[in-house]
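User: For my dataset I need records formatted as: sequence, then structure tokens, nothing else. Please produce one.
Assistant:
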Amino acid sequence: MWLKILGIIKSNFYHFIKLFLALMTKATTQNGFIISFPSSFNGYKVLDLIGCGTTCVVVSVEKQKTKEIYSAKIISKEDAQKRKMFHVVKKEIEILKKLDHPNIIKIYESFEIQNESDDKLLIIITEYCSKGSLVDYIKDRKLKNEYQKNKIILSLLTAVEYIHNKGIAHH
């Protein structure tokens, strides 16, 4: 009888672990740090991996209540602190939340969560750019038209002027 009970527990435990792992996603930053994060958090459902940065992974997410699509920058607090970058990230969030310009990505909210290993993750929810990053946009299109190049340069300069007028220096 005990063997039968142990068999049921073992079988159910295996299915529980399999289901639990299916709800987690992993991605690697450009520096090789693996970030494990849940497939949904704080009312957002992870849709797809967009890319990886030095300290983060970026995913597209859907706000479950409104079905709107956003980007989520996921940063390991431990990794950012080890690399003495956490204060820089927090400052970036603080500054970007104050900005409202058509050529500067908007931050809607930021919050911390913990993954299944109790690692603390900083999540930054931003507007979703369907055409990707500016660098990818330029690479994909191999801009040869002077008008297109000038339009991008002017857009960048107006954004830089805007942040400088706010007393912020971009470097």
